[in-house]
Amino acid sequence: MPCFPASLQAPAKSFLRPGVWMPGLRNNHSHTESWKVNGDPSHCIEETLIAVEHLNEVEHPSEYYVNRVLHEENWVQIFCYTPAGWLDVMELTFVSCEENSSLAKVSSFSTGALPAWFPLGFICDMALCWCPIVDSGSNIERCQIVREALPFTIDVLDRSEGDRLVPRSFKDRSPMFSRMEDRDNKKVS
User: Fold this and answer.
1) What secondary structure letter does DSSP report for 114?
2) What phi-psi label fits residue 39: left (phi over 0), alpha (psi between -120 and 50 degrees) or beta?
3) Residue 125 belongs to a domain with what CATH number?
């Protein structure tokens, strides 16, 4: 279980995401994959929630907690606390593609340069967003751990195949931000 300051600041760090503000620098501590999954999107979400629950029972360094689930958009956000207290975030979005199969966009990224327990770390992270940080492949490994924990067949799509099969709007933004954008567009009308 993360310490109290970390659990208080995690939602702010996750929302602000200063670790991914700088193009080029974010590539050192983020990873995105596209998957083809056997199962419909709602079933995939339910199995993901069960798998994340069981991940903390297995011996590995990070702690995993489901932060948000949007069932109507087949989206889940997972908080991953490293042993040193850094917060990494995984987001999975599923869409139907063929009968009884789904496409998934999976993103894992570090939220900032400071651990989640650092007092007002999310504010300091905004000032330090230009600092390069390296995750030593932990976000790639995290995607693999979750993929292996899921109970169905998953094919990782190569970049060109993923770009061809996954719709552009699906790749570019998470449901949370698209809903805010839709709300803002309604205000303008």
Assistant:
1) S
2) left
3) 3.30.530.20
String of b and e for 27-39 (b: at least 16 CB within 10 Å)? eebbbebbbbbeb
- Residue 13: both structure tokens together: 């760090």
The one-digit pLDDT tens for each residue of the chain (189 residues) are: 677 777 878 888 888 887 888 887 777 788 989 999 988 999 999 999 999 989 888 866 778 999 999 999 999 999 999 888 888 999 999 998 878 889 999 999 988 888 888 888 888 878 888 888 878 888 899 999 999 999 988 888 876 565 556 554 444 445 444 444 454 445 444
Q: What is the domain range of residue 128?
A: 4-188
Q: How many domains does one find in the chain? A: 1
Contacts of 126 (CB under 8 A, 6+ apart): 16, 18
